[in-house]
Structures are given as structure tokens and as C-alpha cells.
Write a structure and sequence with these properties.
four-stranded antiparallel β-sheet, elongated, 6 helices, 8 strands, alpha+beta
């Protein structure tokens, strides 16, 4: 290709298209590899939580809810928690079209998921205030992909016009 140039937005807009099509392009870059990435807990699960999860203490029990997804998604969540031998009770609400799974962690029991959400300042955070924690932004390339897959699994969709993602959070 041609060597790169710095151009003003006005110049780009005035010469954006010609008979051959689009005249300007930004080259793709490689993903950033951080030298000392922190270990992160289950990026796909945290991504899914950021997309459609909620958490609170309810009647003295720690509760984490996942509001969307088909049965395979909720089975995947249970399998992830099973890897850590977490003690939880699963409560499914199938009255609506969107399956809801609530995970209830008994008072005093250890929960890596709850501890992670607490340490990330995500417990009780509304959809308007959710954010991607810095250690996930600086995680390995594969972990960042898994985080994105979780977010898209919860809040993404494929339409006849293309793919779509929506969020309520300005962050």
C-alpha cells in the first residue's frame, strides 16, 4: 500500500469516495500483549455477568442472577462454578421466555465468584454503572476474547441486517 499520511477530518470527508470507491483506510493493528497480565477469574463468566447479570444480598444470602441465555448457557455457568467446588443452590425461573438462573450462596460459605465480583466493585452495581474492570482490559489476548464472548452472549444479537450489541452503561 501507500505510505501513511496524517490528514484533517475535513480533508478526508472531501475526498472520502471516488469512482473506485472508498479512498481512505486505517491499517489493522495487532492485539496489545501486556507484559505482566494479572490472573483473572473466568473471563467468559464475568463478561456474561457484565451483560446480563446482577447481584445482591437477599434475605441474608448472597445472590447472583443471570437473566438471559438458553439452557446450555446456564449449564455452562454451573460447570464453571463446579470447577471451583462452589457451594450454591440454583433456582430457575422459567415463567418467562428469558430463562433466569439465580445462584444462592449460603451465608459463610466460600464463593470465588462472589469474592471476585466484590473485589471488582461489581456487587449490586446497576446496568447503568457496570464497567469492564482494568485487569480484564489488560488480560491476555485469549482472556479478552473470552470476556467479549461472554458480553456478546448476553447482550449481542444477530439480525438479518448484521450483528448488534447494546449496553446501558456509558462506561
Amino acid at each position: 500500500g501507500l505510505p501513511g499520511q496524517v490528514r484533517s477530518l475535513r480533508s478526508i470527508m472531501q475526498t472520502l469516495r471516488n469512482k473506485a470507491g472508498v479512498q481512505h483506510a486505517v491499517p489493522r493493528t495487532q492485539a496489545v500483549v501486556f507484559e505482566e497480565a494479572e490472573e483473572v477469574y473466568e473471563p467468559w463468566l464475568i463478561g456474561f455477568y457484565l451483560g446480563d447479570g446482577s447481584s445482591a444480598i437477599y434475605n441474608g444470602q448472597r445472590r447472583v442472577c443471570f437473566d438471559k441465555g438458553d439452557l446450555s448457557v446456564h449449564e455452562r455457568i454451573a460447570a464453571i462454578l463446579g470447577k471451583y467446588e462452589e457451594s450454591f443452590r440454583r433456582s430457575d425461573d422459567s415463567r418467562s421466555n428469558n430463562k433466569t438462573t439465580s445462584l444462592l450462596f449460603p451465608k459463610g460459605s466460600a464463593s470465588r465468584l462472589w469474592e471476585t465480583l466484590t473485589n471488582l466493585s461489581l456487587v449490586g452495581v446497576s446496568c447503568l454503572d457496570k464497567f469492564i474492570p482494568l485487569q480484564y482490559l489488560r488480560a491476555s489476548i485469549e482472556e479478552r476474547w473470552q470476556l467479549l464472548f461472554g458480553i456478546l452472549e448476553a447482550d449481542g444479537s444477530v439480525l438479518t441486517t448484521g450483528r448488534s450489541f447494546s449496553t446501558s452503561s456509558p462506561r
